[in-house]
Request: fold
Amino acid sequence: MLEYIWQNKEWIFSGVGVVIIFTLLPSIVLLFKHRKNKKYADTDKPVSKSFPSNDSIEKIPIEKELSQKVKKMIEDGGYQLSPTPEEIEEKVESVTPFQQSSIRESFKDIKICWKLEFSSLSISDNKKVTLYFHSKTGSILGLSVICENVDLEKYPTFKNSKRGSEVWVLGKIKEIETLHLRLVNNIFIFD
Reply:
């Protein structure tokens, strides 16, 4: 295998090879996740948006980490600590590929509040900033959380944030894809 890579390194690492690798990457990731989680959910059960209510915040272990500002946003703003990115990923992966679309749709428009690790940011040509986060407890291949159109004037802390910095991210789930989850109407709270 290494000999093949060495002999074909120019082709593999040229634009064509990179495109092929990144085109196949989502399929490979799904294959590994499928092997890891071979159990499938009962297909007759309806999809539900029922998750722990905010009344049970005291019962959630992460509650110790909640600042007063975050508690206020949860209580007054209708944000939820659950479902977490891991719970969403587990639910989507627990059903057949045919059912995954409807499961993903069932999470749309839920207002969430998660403590995430800042990963990176990108600035587009029109100066719009996109922030990327990962769950503190998620795997390296877990869902990335993407927040688009962030105003760095409103959140200048991101200009100096290091990878792995913990941030409370609040927003509404816009869409869930194979490797990422997009949030809109974002609010960021730094403890």
Notes: The longest strand covers residues 111-123.
